[in-house]
Amino acid sequence: MSSVPLHYIDLRAFCYATEDDRRVESALRTLLPEAFELQRLENEGHHGDRILVFSARVENADEMRVVLDRLGELPADQRQRLRSELDERVTDNTELFLTLDKQAAFGGDVRLGDGITVRAKVEAYPATKDAAVENARDVLESP
Description:
This is Exosome subunit, RNA binding protein with dsRBD fold. Pfam families: RNA_binding. This protein is of the alpha+beta class. The protein has one domain (about 5-140): 50s Ribosomal Protein L5, Chain: A (2-Layer Sandwich), CATH 3.30.1440. The protein is about 35% helix and about 30% strand. It has six helices and five strands. It has helices at about 20-30, 60-70, 75-85, 85-90, 100-105, 130-140, and strands at about 5-15, 40-45, 50-60, 95-100, 115-120. A hairpin with a 5-residue loop joins strand 2 and strand 3.
């Protein structure tokens, strides 16, 4: 893939009071290029508990390729599932959404699941959902 048909990729993970923030940060870094800067925001839950939000926006094409390469490590059945669900995963605003297993990412594996939210703004000209779905399909079918 010489060009990346994405404007940016946002990644986000919540770290709840019962979790180790270094582990959650490590899980998110599994998907990112080395030494990528993470944003860390501290919030308070409904009952006064601490919630950290780790996030990153990847905008550079080479860095996006690193994230896409990691997503390419999804098991074949999960990649096929993503491709078959693209119509539901791509919004009218040309955004692709998926969630990854935070625990698996901490262990260095990339799996669909809960804990890490991935939002990719798909390039589409014209900016329609159908065009975005086709570009997202290209992204997910690339080696």
